[in-house]
Amino acid sequence: MSVSAIVMMSIAIITVWGGLVAAVVNIVRHPEKGD
Q1: pLDDT of 1-35, one tens digit each?
Q2: Which residues have a Cβ under 8 Å from the Cβ of 32 and sit 6 or more positions away?
Q3: Where are the transmembrane segments (predicted)?
Q4: CB under 8 Å to 25, separation ≥6 — which residues?
């Protein structure tokens, strides 16, 4: 793979996993109130 392809793949992976981690942290800090 070319360098630009590796860079773009890395950015995509960091974006997806970073969003997932941010969502989990947000849920842990602010859990939803049960009905």
Answers
A1: 999 999 999 999 999 999 999 999 999 998 877 66
A2: none
A3: 6-28
A4: none
